[in-house]
Amino acid sequence: MTRLKNVYIFTGGTLTDEMLSYNNLDEGIIIGVDRGVDWLINHGITPDYFVGDFDSIDIVLLERIKKYYSNKVKIYPSEKDETDTELAMQLAISLKPQNIIIFGGTGSRLDHVIANVHILLQAERNDISSVIYGTNNRIRVLLSGKSKKIMKSHFSYVSIFPFTEVVAGVTLEGFKYPLVKGVMKIGFPYGVSNEIVEDNGTISLDTGILLIIESKD
Amino acid sequence: MTRLKNVYIFTGGTLTDEMLSYNNLDEGIIIGVDRGVDWLINHGITPDYFVGDFDSIDIVLLERIKKYYSNKVKIYPSEKDETDTELAMQLAISLKPQNIIIFGGTGSRLDHVIANVHILLQAERNDISSVIYGTNNRIRVLLSGKSKKIMKSHFSYVSIFPFTEVVAGVTLEGFKYPLVKGVMKIGFPYGVSNEIVEDNGTISLDTGILLIIESKD
């Protein structure tokens, strides 16, 4: 059996039309989360799954969804331990894809953004490559002993931060400021605003967890 | 000698007029950072110190500042290990105040936001209470064995996240969802969107470091 390639999660926060032109959107499974469902349907896309407490979705739309897609709708109470995006992530992980791409997930509510960053760990720990694709930022996490290749793109800056107290063996190749087996500790954000100078940059890590943020103004 | 009460850092990101009505702004020391200097001067406020590489400030303004405030201007090269806000934080710490309040510091560049969150640790480790006061978020960190009181305010939601791999002995009092000696681990953001139901909420912690984010829509 060929492993499913991509699951796309469209969640709250800022969603833009640009995200619809992402490669291979047609070939993946699409999960709409709460207000992301509204947004997808307004853009002529019916998600494969609908997840959320739907406390911020149009009630008429919700009734229509429940009627036509009853087997694809997962409604959760609004007071629960997990966020809606976390529930969507758990559904996505259960589909065992190679990649999970979260569109949206960033915006003015920093608490939601940080929660979404934590959720990336759940995918990576299941050996699924995952990314939050926001308007001004693309966010990944890198686990111990792993490496990631980042393509040079219109996200001009690549910053790395320790996501655990200490990260060690941080190696950056293809970057303006390369690094060999560096150590970083929380509280000292010296990995801000690096740039990829080759076609792509590779980040690898021996121990700890690294947060990788590509940004543009 | 009475200890200096407040140092205010006005930095890049989103700055709003509301921030000027903050209590006791007149009585504290004000540090302008790079574009924050522009913003302050446009609002009729001359900072006590000017910090940055000033790569994004009006050149005429910069020349005027250098002429009149030469002893208060700290210009750094634009390629350096520290961010401008970190240099301002180090200056603020050297003044040994009780509190450091960073205005701005949040915005669309998540890498800058995360860098600023890390920088808060430098103040707290020097026993200086510190906060990033953004437009939609107020951000603090809480060190091992410490507690913080958060006043109920127009920031409706209070979320907590582990900033180290594990945090233990997390106790929340005065909250809608209280907690006694809880344990949190990175990857599981179950502390999102709590609310203060008393006049104030108290958060205390035995081990690890906690990230506290108040948010509003």
In what order do the strands lie side by side in the largest sheet of chain A? Answer: 4-3-2-1-5-6-7-13-9
Largest interface: A-B, 41 and 41 residues
The protein's oligomeric status is homodimer
Number of strands of chain A: 13
Largest sheet properties of chain A: 9 strands, mixed
CATH-assigned homologous superfamily of the largest domain in chain A: Thiamin pyrophosphokinase, catalytic domain
Report the sheet-strand fraction of chain A: 25-35%
Count of runs of 4 or more consecutive helical residues of chain A: 4
Distance between the termini of chain A: 42 Å
Task: Return residue spans of chain A where pLDDT drops below 50 for at least 5 consecutive residues.
Answer: none
- Domain count of chain A, please report it: 2
Q: How would you sum up the global shape of chain A?
A: elongated
Counting helices, strands and paired strands, the structural category of chain A is alpha/beta
Which whole number gives the mean pLDDT of chain A?
92
Integer-rounded radius of gyration of chain A = 18 Å
* CATH C-level class of the largest domain in chain A: Alpha Beta
Helix content of chain A: 10-25%
Using the 3D structure, state the CATH architecture of the largest domain in chain A: 3-Layer(aba) Sandwich
- At the fold tier of CATH, the topology name of the largest domain in chain A is Rossmann fold
